[in-house]
Amino acid sequence: EAQVTQNPRYLITVTGKKLTVTCSQNMNHEYMSWYRQDPGLGLRQIYYSMNVEVTDKGDVPEGYKVSRKEKRNFPLILESPSPNQTSLYFCASSHRGGGLSSGANVLTFGAGSRLTVL
Amino acid sequence: AQSVTQPDIHITVSEGASLELRCNYSYGATPYLFWYVQSPGQGLQLLLKYFSGDTLVQGIKGFEAEFKRSQSSFNLRKPSVHWSDAAEYFCAVGDNFNKFYFGSGTKLNVKP
Asked: Which of helix, strand or coil describes residue B56?
């Protein structure tokens, strides 16, 4: 089954304790991205990656790191989490086409990871 | 700057009634427009997309949306709502640089 898998789905941690949220896709998608969802704000893009070893900042990158060493994986790293990073996080992926072909640029989302930082 | 506005935070409709969810965007070029649905505890699922061509697009689950350039709108419609349509709906704009901008969402409640 084509899917984006995130782990953990739920996590409660404390301020300053480094954590990693993993994301893996099995669709051979070039593009992967991370979003956070907060009430009343919708989804905001944290980081995205066009392909292996190519990453760029989204709209809210502060406090986060990413890496793309393999095509299928795109982990989100919180080096020193703070309470304002308490949120629901989504990983998504898509093909990138030349222009917007029918399958390109349509995001497939993971089920989400709910993170609480105390 | 690109932005997406969904003016209705909550909407309640009766089962069988028609539905229209509003979406307005601000974007400097031809937008790529999407509607996603999020069921409780789930990720987002694509309902439909507009890239170019016919301004009325059909999606899954009986949804459709119409792109109106003059009004910068991409409203989602369904002629007859089912109880299973209760969810949160997000409008999104994508650009050529793989950035996506989402609205704040509209929560749909369906009355029996």
From this structure: strand
Nearest chain A alpha carbon to B107: A40
Q: How confident is the model at residue A102 (pLDDT cuts 50, 70, 90)?
A: low
pLDDT in tens, A32-81: 999 999 988 889 999 999 999 999 999 899 999 999 999 999 999 999 99
Task: Decide: B43 and A111 in contact? Cβ < 8 Å.
Answer: yes
Return the CA Rg of chain B: 13
Contacts of A4 in chain B (CB under 8 A): 43
DSSP state of A51: E
Per-residue model confidence (pLDDT) at position A23:
98
User: What 3-state DSSP class applies to B29?
Assistant: coil
CA dist B100 and A66 (Å) reads 18
Across the interface, do B46 and A106 touch by the CB < 8 Å criterion?
Answer: yes
B35 strand-pairing partners: B48, B91
**What pLDDT is recorded for position B52?**
81
Both tokens of residue B87?
A: 């969810």
Tokens of B52: 């170019």
Say whether pLDDT at B49 is over 70.
Answer: yes
Mean pLDDT over each residue of chain A, to the nearest integer: 91
Q: B interface toward A at CB cutoff 8 Å?
A: 4, 6, 9, 32, 34, 36, 41-46, 49, 51-52, 90, 92, 94, 98-105
Nearest CA in chain A to B94: A105
